[in-house]
Amino acid sequence: MEKEYILITDFCLSHNIETHFVMELYEFGLVDLVVKEDVRYLPIQQLPKAEKIIRLYSDLDINLEGIAVITQLLNKIEKMQDEITHLKNRLDLYE
Amino acid sequence: MNFIDYYKILGLDKSASQSDIKKAYRKLARKHHPDVNPNDKEAEKKFKEINEANEVLSDPEKRKKYDKYGKDWQHAEEFEKARSSQGSSQSRGRRTSSQNYGEHDFSDFFESMFGGSGNFSGRGQTRFRGQDLNAELKLHLRDVFKTHKQTLTVNGKNIRITVPAGIENGQTIKITGHGGPGHQGGPNGDLYITFGIINDTPFKRDGNDLYTSVNLDLYTALLGGEIMVNTFDGQVKLNVKPETQNGTKIKLKGKGFPVYKKNDVYGNLYITYNLVTPTNLTQKEKDLFKKLAELRK
């Protein structure tokens, strides 16, 4: 349990944020949460995503709607970069 | 160590107001923030420069010192001595707040002028989980034909990793927990290794399939026969059909590259025949070819 999930309260404490902010992220579909015996946890795999969102929010003053769009576009870019790598590798066949 | 023009970095002149600085910083930070430019080292470097410029120019105390000494920053130490003798509780208070951030976030110029620890406000660094690290590993195509262990040195630590057979050029694998240490009990970050595969073999690779060409002499092409060809892991005997045409492509099933993370599953090897006609014909050969040509008329 300890290794797979992080207590939302611990996460918020370390980032100096309110619990309701994480709930907002959840409601926006930006992160997944797990509830066990009425206690909310953040799956450890969600940590990089959650921390990136907090950085975008606090460093760049981007609201959650903006973060949702950025996240979606970054995912698209990642897929396109994978495709570019694949196509570049294929291009070697003709060089 | 060179002087850094913080105004130039933010695209401002010396008369810029705090509001101008904030605006310029925001604009550039949005463009170069590491989270919106993943795996872009240039953007990461630029973001650090912007942060450092903002760190100095948005702090009236630091800006005053920077403006006063500018290119004569080497004399800043004297200024610092004079100032510390007067006492500056504000400055001391600010310096203690950045223990979590590495000194590498600042340039040598900054550290020389303002000391090793500044008041980096943690931009781009908010983390409970440790920082993810990225590394590149160059391997030869032959190295990734078989699964093997490799020792890497990352941040002074030796890590033994398994490089699975069939890894692709440009592919990135994640080594969980081998990134930077977590903060306040948080988990370690991950290490991402991107592979650069150097192909110095006569084989071209497309995913799991390999391609190569083999020269075929005229007589074998016409009459058929057996030839030995090189595959990636040794020679095989091939039966060439009579009357094989130039450019004929044949498939050797399972003689290609290993499929990533699938034991004993291989792609195919495609061989293209290059028909090589004889040169330096003797008179006798010429006569015989003429006879053959006449038979075709």
UniProtKB/TrEMBL annotation, chain A:
- Tell me which domain of life the UniProt entry assigns to the organism this sequence originates from: Bacteria
What is the name of the protein in this document?
Chaperone modulator CbpM
From TrEMBL, chain B:
The reply to whether Transferase figures as a keyword in the UniProt entry is no
Ordered alphabetically, the record's keywords are: Chaperone
User: What InterPro entries does this protein's entry cite?
Assistant: DnaJ_C (IPR002939), DnaJ_domain (IPR001623), DnaJ_domain_CS (IPR018253), HSP40/DnaJ_pept-bd (IPR008971), J_dom_sf (IPR036869)
Extent of the signal sequence: none
**What positions does the domain J occupy?**
5-70
Q: Could you tell me where the Basic residues compositional bias lies?
A: 24-33
- Return the Low complexity bias intervals: 84-99
Supply the PROSITE patterns for this chain: DNAJ_1 (PS00636), DNAJ_2 (PS50076)
Region (Disordered) location: 24-102
Instruction: List where this protein forms a coiled coil.
Output: none
Which superkingdom, per the lineage?
Bacteria
Chaperone as UniProt keyword: yes
Q: Pfam families under this entry?
A: DnaJ, DnaJ_C
> Which residue ranges have biased composition labelled Basic and acidic residues?
34-51, 59-83
Family annotation (PANTHER family): DNAJ HOMOLOG 1, MITOCHONDRIAL-RELATED
| Official protein name in the record | J domain-containing protein
